[in-house]
Amino acid sequence: MAKILQHNTNNSTFLKVVAGSLLCLCFLSLPCTSINAQENENSGKIIFTPQWQPQAQFAGYYAALDQGYYSQAGLDIRIIHPGSTTNSLDMLTQGKSHIVSAFLIHGLKASKQGAPIKHVAQMLQKSSLMIVTHKESNIKSIPDLEGKKLGVWANGFDDLIFALLKQEKTNVQVVRISNTVNLFLEKGIDAMTVMHYNEYNQIINSGIDPDELNTFFMGDLGLDIPEDALYCLQSTWEKDPEKMISFVKATLKGWEYAAQNQEYALDLVESYMKQANLPVNRVHQRWMLQIILEALEPNGKAVKKGELCQKDHDRASSILN
Q: For the whole model, what pTM was predicted?
């Protein structure tokens, strides 16, 4: 029996649900009044949706737009970020976006379930997903998590975590958490799923020394599955593949410019975050940008930037079987 706990951040209480298997997360859709991609396409605009709210993870797209790389390629791009409970792939299949960013494994999963989507490019070439524990907990390996409370995001990103637990034959109490590391800091959970470029650094910025943590990277545990990929509808690809290819090329130019002009890129990131009324921490965003830039490089792989290695595709697919 798998036990799943839901953490309520409003009253800091736990709601306990016992299920025979791990529950599948259902993402909320945007209301019908949301921007319609077809209407924008008819007016010449193309909507791009990242998989999360504004942050340095998407600096290359901001730079490509700001530097005019999209317009130079004949593209009129509009960047529409999703809400915190919205799945970018849902926005794509519901006709609210033309091209979106999503984890490779999520795209493969959606395609396997019948979504008519096309993998256009592979932007990030490695996994930044990891599990952290307090060193004093004496959890030194994944099997040590047996019976422990593991924080996993309420908005998904859990396929690799569950694959890891199955691989290690380890049963845990899954605690669904929102976009905060507070429960881990308060030691209300024994371990937490984090991204190296994001929540891990939030924990460090809270005053915890890296030496006080045990870290388990998916990449070191045989599950180095690349993350951010670009997807469009299969019908969009069939209609005008060159338009999507042009988007990828312009985006790569944007990332190159962001890498060479990082303070400028961070200024752009901050402007997008402020427009979205998000708190800005430039030090944290700088860390994120540097980690993301490293993940863009296909080091040791026989592919160029933006391409998907066949071995990575096969490894991700095998997890979903």
A: 0.85
Number of H helices, E strands in the chain: 13, 12
The ranges of the chain with pLDDT < 50 are 1-34, 42-43
Alpha carbon distance 97, 82 (integer Å):
10
Residue 9: inside a domain? no
Q: Which of 189, 205, 220 is the last residue of a domain?
A: 220
Q: Give the tens place of pLDDT for each residue, 76-118.
A: 999 999 987 788 999 999 999 999 999 999 999 999 999 999 9
The three-state (H, E, C) secondary structure of 196-245, written as one string? CCCHHHHHHHCCCCHHHEEEEEHHHCCCCCCCEEEEEEHHHHHHCHHHHH
pLDDT of residue 38: 56
Do 270 and 141 lie in a common domain? no
Count of structural domains within the chain: 2
State whether 163 and 297 are in the same domain: no
- 14 inside domain: no
**CA 233: distance to chain centroid?**
19
Range of the domain at 44: 37-126+226-320
